[in-house]
Amino acid sequence: MSRLIIVSNRVSVPDHKGAAAAGGLAVALQAALAERGGIWMGWSGKSSGEAEPEPLEMTQDGNITYALTDLTQTDVEEYYQGFANRVLWPICHYRLDLAEYARKEMTGYFRVNRFFAHRLAPLIEPDDIIWVHDYHLIPLAAELRQMGLKNRIGFFLHIPWPPADVVRAMPVHEEIMRGLSSYDLLGFQTDHDLENFAGCLKREGMGIEKSPGHFSAHGHDFRGGAYSIGIETAAFAAFARKAASHSMVHKARKSIEGRDLILGVDRLDYSKGITQRIDAFERFITNNPAHQRSVTYLQITPKSRSEVPEYEAMQHAVAEQAGRVNGAIGTVDWVPIRYINRSISRPILAGLYRLAKVGLVTPLRDGMNLVAKEYVAAQDPDDPGVLVLSQFAGAARKLHGALLVNPYDVDGTANALARAVNMPLQERQERWRGMMDYLLEHDVLHWCETFLADLTAK
Ligand code: ADQ
């Protein structure tokens, strides 16, 4: 079996606290690496001076080598905070209005990809297979090919891929499309993202889809597929079962005083639709006064990317909005919204999911959305809660038992909330069973194995 090399912007170096601390994606990638032996390379998260780069920071764990590189402060600003998070992220989430193009940052993005290629190339052996992750590193294969590497290289995009008209708003869209076309296998979260990619190739006149999932562009033949990422379903369900006895979960249960818990869990990001969700909750209460005091909405939202201006602005907007709604609909003995800006350990998170009568997951656009899957996995089969899910999350393509909503439609989401809190047990069980069966079969290991099987297939 060939060795595996994984490259991603950030790397999960194990701290040996077990799966609970690591999260499903890291666990699955580490399992794939352990099976084949290999290397996981990425940015250390640190910035260094502009002088000669320090040698790679290597950590050995069994047959896996973790190789981390520092970047300069300029690199971090241009590649990561700049082009990756202020152009590719908004564009891929259909937010043309938020994309900030600057030539300097685009150049920095391609420069850092070349730097990654030069640091990685000496570690690569001829029959290694290489798996690159996410939008930070789209040009990496093209750079490695430029250096003469013939290895099989796959790419998985964790975020959505938008239609041609959106992609074409990006000044360097041709280079980005050429970068994607340099891989041997391109993995997208859903069939819709794959269709959008095929549409972009066609619209650009860059290439053709010779047969479903088989492309030819720039003189290179490659494949593309939809590989929906999963979670560690069985392990997560086990955390949730155990979590009932966790003191924090116990305290949370006591503090809601018998009310139904509606739960939202998201990184603080404009793609997650948090402000629209708070509006929908307020509308639900004003349209259904009988539910005043009978529900508590808990929104757990750790800060992310605070160095990017749009995120900082959002932090203020959400906090203000939650305060305003509490002021408007709260009563002396009822605080409708609890808003928390912190990360929560996975076992406690699993316990809170299980406690919640409704999982409210309403991104405006999301590659997959693992929170939706975790919420389902954490439910008590005898008394499962209801998932209210945005039709614009990749997860909606397969989680047919959810109540699907359009997050831009505040009344529609408010109505779905009312339906969720009133749903009879039998309907909740039927909806949940179908989703859970799907998630048990399509877990994160299945995702990882399917992608790697296709990447290594002749
Ligand atoms: P994200 O945008 O980060 O991921 P998501 O898929 O929901 O979104 O994953 C978030 C993860 O963070 C979940 O595992 C969740 O449990 C965890 N998390 C969120 N809030 C937390 C908190 N307060 N405390 C602790 N943990 C918390 C990107 C894409 C997604 C895609 C994933 C994986 O944007 O669309 O599903 O990658 O491919």
Automatic annotation (TrEMBL):
GO BP terms in the entry: trehalose biosynthetic process
Catalytic activity: D-glucose 6-phosphate + UDP-alpha-D-glucose = alpha,alpha-trehalose 6-phosphate + UDP + H(+)
InterPro entries cross-referenced by the UniProt entry: Glyco_trans_20 (IPR001830), Trehalose_OtsA (IPR012766)
Keyword Transferase in record: yes
Top enzyme class: transferase
Keywords, comma-separated and alphabetical: Glycosyltransferase, Transferase
Quaternary structure annotation from Swiss-Prot or TrEMBL: Homotetramer.
Role description: Probably involved in the osmoprotection via the biosynthesis of trehalose. Catalyzes the transfer of glucose from UDP-alpha-D-glucose (UDP-Glc) to D-glucose 6-phosphate (Glc-6-P) to form trehalose-6-phosphate. Acts with retention of the anomeric configuration of the UDP-sugar donor.
Protein name according to UniProt: Trehalose-6-phosphate synthase
UniProt organism field: Rhizobium lusitanum
Origin organism lineage: Bacteria, Pseudomonadati, Pseudomonadota, Alphaproteobacteria, Hyphomicrobiales
